[in-house]
Structure formats: structure tokens, C-alpha cells
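Try it yourself: sequence plus 2-acetamido-2-deoxy-beta-D-glucopyranose, in.
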Amino acid sequence: MKNVQIALLLWLVSFFSFTYSKHTPSDYIKEFNDSAIKLTLEKTTYSLIYFYSDSCKYCQLFNPVFENLCTLYNEDSEATGFQILKTNARVNKKLSKLFGIRHYPTLKLLHYPSKEILEYEGKRDLHSLIDYIGSKTTLTPNYENFKSEVKNIENPKELLENSKDKLVIFIMSHLIDWQDYHYPSHYIQRISNTYEDIDFYVYHGDDLNHAELLPQFGVSNFPSLVYIRNGEFKSFNTEPPAYQTNDKFNGDKIIKFIESIDSDGSLWRSIEAVSVAPVIGTEQFEDDEDSEEDIEHIEL
Ligand SMILES: *[C@@H]1O[C@H](CO)[C@@H](O)[C@H](O)[C@H]1NC(C)=O
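Structure, out:
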């Protein structure tokens, strides 16, 4: 009897470690310190180094972006000749002095053979950093390291299938908080892993395909949530608030909505078919800022 229990336990342990090990963003984070500067930096041609301090609030904001960045580039650094590192610059005074760190967060790109360093001065979002890395090293991100648990809506009929409950998050492409939702450190990926009985979708309100979904679910505010079960739905935040509020979501709001779906007292509404005239797209403009680069050198 005991043997059976132990075998079951072992099987469970191996099952869970097999299922989850691949997708932990922290597996790809490489932290180094004053004790191994040369040993670490000489491993690759390029190192992108994130200098942080524990108390810096812009570092807290940047940490999820940094995790995503590591997931995209740090699997095979020896082959690519590029690694992403982080170091606590307050604690590691040698490193901090060597790279001339005066504020946090600071990102510096080192070219090891020439010892040239560039300071990254662009926006600290994933897409700007991917572009920057591509422009300096010609490397492209390895998107295979994770699989998004959140789908896009290919065919709205999927939403009417009764097999599983569905949560659709209606967003706008320009919402900063939602630009990285398909990367593993976004909270929606963690939530969707927790609620395996629910299929998660993201719908871009500015996507002209399937624009009928907006009137169908009464969505005129973003981000908002629609929970679908057996052809009926409940919604959250779909209409603009009467007064100015913070339109940001965090994971807690989404979890609360899911958890209270059976007890919130509101009625399920049925999904009615609607037809809408196509919307004409608006032009998108981009800022085009050039920044000068200061090249510095370090002696190792
Ligand atoms: C520095 O890094 C090494 C290797 O990762 C580790 O063993 C050591 O404990 C670290 N030292 C400090 C002071 O954090």
C-alpha cells in the first residue's frame, strides 16, 4: 500500500515538474556579481546588462519586461554570442564603478572584444528593446521558449461552443499594459494557467475583423471583460465610467470577476447575432526620435 502511494507521489511530482519547468521565465534570468565579472562577461561577444537596485520603482516596473526579454534571448547564449544579465548595482560596487552607473535602472550593452559599451536610452518596453538588440547584434528573439495560453479570436463561432467557459478580454492595441500579454510574465498568462477550465481570449477593439463583437457584447470601453458560458454572457467594465477612473486592470480585478461569476447576482444575457457596417480605419502615426549614442570603454 505504501509503495503505491509513493509511486503515485513520484508520478505526480514528475508530472508537475515536466509540465511547468519549461515555462518559468525565471529559468532564463542570469544574475551576476562582483565576484565573477570577467568570467561572466567573457562568455559571449555581447552582454546586455541591467543594473538595478531593490528600492527603485522604475526597476519594479521594468522587471516583467526584463523577464520576458531573458526568455527570448537567454536560452542558447553560447551559440548566439549574446547574453542578458542583471546585477544589483548598489551591492556590486566594482561593477557599478566599472560601468559608470549613476542611476537605476540602467541598461548597458557591452561588446566584449572591443570593450565598448553603449548605454540604452530608448523606451524600456519589450518591442523597443527587441528592435535595439536586433540593430546592434542582428539577433532575433526566440519565440519558441513559451507558448501563450491566451488566444486571439480567429472565428467568433468558437465563442459559442459550449464545451468550456470562456473569458474574452477586450483591449485596444495602444494600451501599454496589454502590449505584452502573450509573453509569460504578463499576469494574464499566470491567471490562464491557474484557471485551466476556462479558455482565455484577447480581442483588439481596433481590429476591424469581427467588429460585430463590440455591439454584440455591448463593449465601448477598454480594457473590459466578457465571460461566456453556454451561449450566455456576463460582462465587466464594458461601458465607459461616468467619471474619470483609472482604466488599468490588474490581475486581482480579473480574478475577482471570475471568482464571483456565479454569486454576483447579475443575470446572464444571451448572445444575439448582429450585423454592422464596416468601420473606416484611422491613420496611425509613430514618433521618430533619433538618439545620439555615447560610446564608452571599460578596462577589464
Ligand atoms: C555571486 O555570484 C556567485 C555565483 O552566482 C554566488 O555563488 C555568490 O554567492 C554571489 N555572491 C554574492 C555576494 O552574492
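One thing you can check immediately is this: Residues 150-270 form a domain with the Glutaredoxin fold (CATH 3.40.30.10).
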